[in-house]
Design brief:
Blueprint lengths: L4 H15 L3 H27 L14 H25 L9 H22 L8 H4 L6 H33 L6 H11 L6 H34 L11 H27 L8 H32 L2 H11 L5 H20 L6 H27 L20 H21 L30
């Protein structure tokens, strides 16, 4: 394929990342694999001995695993929604960062559902979910929604990669033969003809239009698992939009962090510029303000209603001896800090925006934890003469090991993907997007 000057510059800057696997890459690979190995051992103990090796008991039946599931599925939506909206609107500055967003979507959607499997006590009956589904169950809705969303996300990413695969195929890279054959197969014979460009453009537009409502539906369905349960802190009509907004908000933070890491690691300052951080910072600030409004509305109505069961959860969240400090951190670092950093021009720098995003992502994970555990620790009926660990949840090293193994897998997949494709897409800097304009037929009047 013929490349223009800009494409050649971008490709030559990044092709060594595809050709070489440096010592630093091997170090991080081994580091991630060690964590995954520890997680594998923890998983073996959990399967062999059951959930008694975890902190989950009769009352608190969910813990770290479900918080991780909501978190990873949530951050995947920012990639889908942001890349989809920016693609449809043909925003020019999206081009260097759109691939990172698409990669976050696919990788996070792979890891998230694994944590649901860790909550299952009888994995040998997992196939019953498919053979004997109950369509009345929100969990079945979740399985159908996530599988559909994952399929759509993979197609969307692959369509965006076809042109770049053709570039890798024709560039005669210094890579093994199996890798060359892989690029050739994945390029699907793409040669850059007007017909091929038109078909890919139409397909990408259609997938971008479909992926946005899919992302909203999936997290809405996930929120209904909680919202349709008669428990304090869960049974709320606001949970649908609240979950969707929190998902896009946390995903935007992960996208900013990934941009900062890739820019520093691969020296992409010329392509991922300060402008990209500032623009995404504006998006994060608006989402943070909306998320803060939803949070205030949710807890204000629960507190003002003064229902006894709801008040128990509110008390746990505001009490310094229980979850008060975590709740304070979740709201200060998750809402106020990102807004202040972006709103004040003096602090509107890539490093500070990335740091605020890091705190915000950590705060949003804690918020997921606070949605789940305090509610489950507040039973409707009083419990007497029972061991404290049956009422109060405390995660064990097995749960933490599997949590960090999931995070390590996330980073590992990103490292591997950056060795197969360029982080900044080369083909995006080619021809202008093709617009399909209907041709008006001339009516010939009879003489």
């Amino acid at each position: 394929m013929q490349l223009n000057t800009k494409q050649e510059e971008i490709f030559n800057h990044q092709k060594q990342n595809i050709e070489k696997f440096t010592k630093r890459n091997w170090f991080w690979m081994i580091f991630y694999l060690l964590w995954i190995g520890l997680g594998g051992y923890a998983l073996y103990l959990q399967i062999a001995k059951g959930h008694e090796v975890t902190g989950m008991r009769d009352n608190v039946v969910w813990g770290l695993y479900i918080a991780n599931f909501i978190f990873f599925i949530g951050i995947s939506y920012a990639g889908a929604v942001i890349s989809g909206i920016l693609h449809i609107l043909k925003v020019e500055w999206r081009k260097p960062i759109i691939r990172i967003a698409e990669m976050i979507t696919v990788v996070a959607t792979i890891i998230g559902p694994v944590f649901i499997l860790l909550c299952v006590g009888r994995l040998d009956r997992l196939h019953h979910l498919i053979i004997y589904p109950r369509l009345q169950s929100p969990i079945v809705w979740d399985v159908l929604a996530i599988s559909t969303y994952f399929t759509g996300s993979c197609i969307f990413l692959y369509l965006a990669l076809i042109k770049d695969f053709a570039i890798y195929r024709d560039a005669k890279l210094n890579v093994p033969k199996w890798k060359q054959k892989m690029y050739k197969a994945l390029a699907l014979g793409y040669r850059g003809t007007p017909s091929q460009k038109k078909h890919i453009s139409i397909s990408m537009n259609l997938m971008a239009i479909m992926i946005i409502p899919l992302a909203i539906i999936v997290h809405s369905v996930l929120s209904w698992i909680f919202g349709m349960t008669l428990r304090p802190g869960w049974h709320s009509t606001i949970f649908g939009p609240y979950f969707v907004l929190a998902a896009i908000y946390s995903g935007t933070g992960v996208l900013i962090i990934a941009m900062w890491v890739y820019r520093k690691m691969y020296k992409l300052h010329s392509y991922i510029t300060d402008k990209h951080f500032i623009y995404l910072g504006y998006i994060m600030m608006v989402l943070g303000a909306a998320y803060g409004y939803f949070t205030f509305s949710e807890y204000l109505t629960s507190w003002f209603g003064s229902e006894k069961w709801e008040n128990e959860v509110i008390h746990k969240l505001f009490s310094g001896s229980e979850y008060g400090w975590w709740f304070l951190f979740a709201n200060v670092a998750g809402i106020l800090l990102p807004i202040l950093i972006v709103a004040i021009p003096k602090f509107r720098k890539p490093n500070l925006i990335a740091l605020a995003s890091l705190f915000m992502v950590a705060a949003l994970w804690i918020k997921r934890y606070l949605i789940i555990v305090p509610t489950l620790e507040s039973p409707l009926l009083p419990i007497q003469d029972t061991r404290p660990e049956y009422v109060h949840y405390s995660a064990t090293w097995v749960e933490w090991a599997l949590t960090f193994a999931g995070i390590a897998t996330f980073f590992l997949l990103f490292t591997l993907l950056s060795k197969f494709v360029t982080v900044v897409p080369v083909s995006e800097f080619g021809d202008k997007e093709i617009e399909v304009i209907p041709v008006k037929k001339e009516i010939v009047q009879p003489v």
